[in-house]
């Protein structure tokens, strides 16, 4: 492990690594696979994709090594994602390796829950701290039409298994699509309340891969609040000093929920997140056109200092504010067309890790 005090690059707990807008390098999303077992229309609407070549995928040892370099530079929060991370064989083994890195304060996983029934306990036992489950509907037939897979019961079993395994602070993430599931907000809040999970409603984002996106399909933060106010009465925003993407709110009866409003209310100025793809490209923004290659130097036996130097240079130069630029860029449509996505699968949200 690279002790922070000995970092050759003058980065330490007292001197955090900052980008051009003074944002610290703090959260890292690690995509462990670009594959997924669902075909949600807002993310992976095609049945087939250009997949990353197997030989380019980082091994668990390579992931742990890169994460160690990142944590030596200030990263404290690591989230495993994908694609669908549970499709990566032996994921608990990777979790065990990361859980032994004392610099990681929050080790989390984002999953669609399809395979959680079998994997929740091994993941918990391996030292995973937290789980966020994606669930867009409580209705089986609607789930089948949104995801093109008729396995809603399996996802609910996965959520229950996560609870049983001992994960507390469960989060449920719901992408809200106009005319498709915007009538389920209160039902989902109640579902979350029933299982002790906090639901976070996500605005439909025009990220790469969302080839069916249009402004009219975005059910906005303002509309979500209006809908929930009609049902529950006055909603109170929780004032928090946090770089988390969700704004949190309290209902009159004390229940809380979150909204991630990247489309209408971007939060680029507090964004401390970056993303590592399963084949070792490092992206500094979900909307970025290109990433920084860490695979090549890693496999060319670069030292940890050399890898750290690349990361430091990348972060110091970072001036991305993709969501804000999309919002201010005038008429908005699909970000990347299918042809371009086929030529460069790294432009896909499911490749760079949502
Ligand atoms: N497969 C895992 C899952 O479903 O949680 C992890 C990867 S998935 C890309 C991560 C999150 O991104 C999910 O909650 C998904 O709903 C969200 N997402 C994907 N495409 C989106 C879009 N166009 N707008 C908003 N959220 C999106």
Attribute tags:
single chain, 354 residues, alpha/beta, binds S-adenosylmethionine, globular, 15% strand, 32% helix
Describe the fold and architecture.
By secondary structure, the protein is α/β, with parallel strands linked by helices. It is built from twelve helices and twelve strands. It has helices at residues 60-72, 91-99, 116-126, 140-147, 152-165, 185-195, 221-232, 295-299, 304-316, 322-328, 338-343, 349-352, and strands spanning 27-31, 77-81, 106-111, 130-134, 171-176, 198-203, 236-237, 247-250, 256-260, 273-276, 281-283, 292-293. A twelve-stranded mixed β-sheet has the order 7-8-9-6-5-4-3-2-1-10-11-12. Helix 1 runs parallel beside helix 2, helix 1 crosses helix 9 and helix 2 (91-99) packs parallel to helix 3 (116-126). It is globular and about 60 Å long.
């Amino acid at each position: 492990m690279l002790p922070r005090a000995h970092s050759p690059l003058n980065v330490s707990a007292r001197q955090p690594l900052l980008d051009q807008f003074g944002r610290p390098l703090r959260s890292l999303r690690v995509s462990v696979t670009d594959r997924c077992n669902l075909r949600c229309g807002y993310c992976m609407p095609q049945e087939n994709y250009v997949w990353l070549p197997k030989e380019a995928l980082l091994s668990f040892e390579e992931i742990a090594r890169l994460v160690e370099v990142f944590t030596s530079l200030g990263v404290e929060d690591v989230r495993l994602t994908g694609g669908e991370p549970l499709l990566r064989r032996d994921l608990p083994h990777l979790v065990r390796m990361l859980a032994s890195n004392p610099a990681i304060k929050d080790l989390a996983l984002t999953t669609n829950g399809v395979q959680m029934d079998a994997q929740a306990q091994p993941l918990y036992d391996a030292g995973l701290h937290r789980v966020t489950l994606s669930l867009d509907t409580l209705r089986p037939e609607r789930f089948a039409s949104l995801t093109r897979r008729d396995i809603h019961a399996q996802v609910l079993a996965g959520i229950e298994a996560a609870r049983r395994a001992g994960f507390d602070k469960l989060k449920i993430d719901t992408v809200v699509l106009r005319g498709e599931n915007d009538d389920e907000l209160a039902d989902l809040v109640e579902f979350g309340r029933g299982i002790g999970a906090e639901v976070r409603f996500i605005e439909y984002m025009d990220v790469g891969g969302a080839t069916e996106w249009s402004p009219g399909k975005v059910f906005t933060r303002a509309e979500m609040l209006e809908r929930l106010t009609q049902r529950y009465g006055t909603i109170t925003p929780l004032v928090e000093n946090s770089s988390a993407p969700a704004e949190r709110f309290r209902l009159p009866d004390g229940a809380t929920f979150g909204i991630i409003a990247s489309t209408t209310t971007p939060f680029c100025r507090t964004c401390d997140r970056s993303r590592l793809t399963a084949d070792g490209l490092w992206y500094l923004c979900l909307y970025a056109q290109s990433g920084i290659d860490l695979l090549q130097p890693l496999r060319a036996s670069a030292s940890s200092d050399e890898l750290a130097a690349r990361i430091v240079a990348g972060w110091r130069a970072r001036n991305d504010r993709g969501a804000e630029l999309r919002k201010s860029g005038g008429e908005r449509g699909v970000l990347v067309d299918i042809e371009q996505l086929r030529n460069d699968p790294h432009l896909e949200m499911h490749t760079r890790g949502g």
